[in-house]
Amino acid sequence: MSHLKQMLCNLSNLAGLSLLLLWSSSSMAQIRPFQAIYASQWDLGISLSGKAERSLIRNDDGSYRLTTEASAMIASLTESSLFRLIGDQIQPSHYRYQRKVLNKTRDVEVAFDWPNQKVKNTAEGSSWVMDIVPHTLDKQSVQLRLQLDLAAIPAVDGQAYAYEVADGGYLKTYLFIAEGEDLIETPLGKYMSVRIKRDRGESTDRETWIWFAPELDYTIVRILQKEADGKRYQLDLKQLTWLNN
Length: 245
Known about the structure:
Elements lengths: L1 H14 L18 E10 L3 E12 L5 E9 L2 E12 L2 E13 L2 E10 L4 E6 L2 E6 L9 H12 L7 E8 L2 E17 L2 E11 L7 E7 L5 E8 L5 E11 L3
Antiparallel strand pairs: 1-2, 1-14, 2-3, 3-4, 4-5, 5-6, 6-7, 7-8, 9-10, 10-11, 11-12, 12-13, 13-14
């Protein structure tokens, strides 16, 4: 049972990084709605496989909703972010995370109150409010900001990207480091991709890498996560469909 929870939590972490965007050459970010499928692999002593589906749609009121749906054996996950583009900034308004394992469910919501610079967190039947700073992001929309920055200025080795994120009832700094380039093979072709590492600090042995393909408008083509105990989790781009606005 603990393996199921661990698998699903890691799938959430991986899928939460896999955004597919198209940015214009101007300073204003233009997001292209999409539907994407990723193949997933887990090495837990035995080999397990599955998939994650991710979609981005533009709502009638001009806002955007990013949704991730994933499954692993008898568990499931749904994660969604609702946000707007304000100039070239991403402004989240609502984030929700739902996880089911057998008859156990975890439901987390984060509601942003920008006039008062606060967020309301709701989890396990309890709610609390915390302060945030300008440009705070949720756990999914942080990836939009990262891709925007990568598209705006080509990454150089060692370059760092830091973002404030409302995560688990705390304001956390997410740090990413550019490490170089690799040629990644996908069903769509081979693409030279920028390798970015999530820097979690010295307090954890968990390591995460993300590969962005500039030739595909900085679509993420691969994510790899290694745990302290040697287990590995990987997502690979399998299918991509651009949707009409």
